[in-house]
Every structure is written in structure tokens, then in C-alpha cells.
Amino acid sequence: MPEIDATDARLLLALTEDPRASVMALSQRLGLARNTVQSRLARLESNGVLGPLDQRVRPEALGHRLAAYMSVQVAQRGLAEVSDALAGLPEVLEVTGLSGATDLLVHVVATDADHLWRITEAVLAIPGVQRVDTALAMRRFVERRVGPLLHRAAGPPPG
């Protein structure tokens, strides 16, 4: 993942504040040429700096109001296969490899407790999964965010 400079950070902050801003509006706001903004946005997208748009959609809006985190222990040489199988479950939002006793942290969503039970059974049925511990997410105190890091990277306002 390439690092971004202060201009990229200012551009991303402007997009955060107005995600539907046109290239022309962004160029005027930031005091940059339209072509500069357009090429920087294209580079940020192609380099994977900008994540997929579907990450902005809240699962609750799709009826998945129950969130949980599964700690999954996997047979040591089966991480890739288990991760691929987890990616095939629509309710799996994210899978993170960890160090320590837990191999994978799996963020899942469900419509209700019965649905979560079925998801757990599906995870346990994946070859290579040895153990699953599930913890319900009760309340989110800090939303996933990058804004404070972008502000730091952007530095003081120009001028």
C-alpha cells in the first residue's frame, strides 16, 4: 500500500466531508488544477487507498441488526482454505489473522440469534476449523474511522 502525501490527505478529507463532490468542486476547494485532482483520485483508487463503496453501507439497513465477533482456531496449514471459505459466507464482513491462541477474528452480522446460530454452524463445518468462540457486539463506542489520521497527514491548513 503506497503512502499518501499531505495533498492526498487533504483531498481525502474533502471527499469525507462531501462524498459526492465533483472533481471541479474539489479542485476549487483545494486550490488544485482539475487534472491534478482527477489524476490523484485515479491513483488513489488504483492503488487501493480508497476502499470499496459497499463498506459505507450499514448492515442494519439490510436487516442484519445483530453483530458478533468470532475467535476462530484453525488447523495450522489451513488458514488460506478457511479464509476462502469464510469469504463465501455473505454474513462475514471481515476476517483478520491474529497472533496468539486465536488464528482468525471474524466479524459477522445476523438478523437474529437463530441466524447467528446457523452462521456459527456453517463456520464450524468448514474443514480446518477447530474451535469457534462467539462474542456479541453490544454497542459501538467509536465507529471505524480514519479522519483523525487524515487530519494528521494533511498537516496544518495551507495559507
UniProtKB/TrEMBL annotation:
* Keyword Transcription regulation among UniProt keywords: yes
SUPFAM superfamilies (alphabetical): Dimeric alpha+beta barrel, Winged helix' DNA-binding domain
> Keywords of this protein's UniProt record, alphabetized?
DNA-binding, Transcription, Transcription regulation
All residue ranges annotated as the HTH asnC-type domain in the record: 4-65
Is Transcription one of the keywords UniProt gives this record? Answer: yes
Q: What's one Pfam family the UniProt record gives for this protein?
A: HTH_AsnC-type
State the protein's name.
Lrp/AsnC family transcriptional regulator
What species is this protein from? Blastococcus carthaginiensis
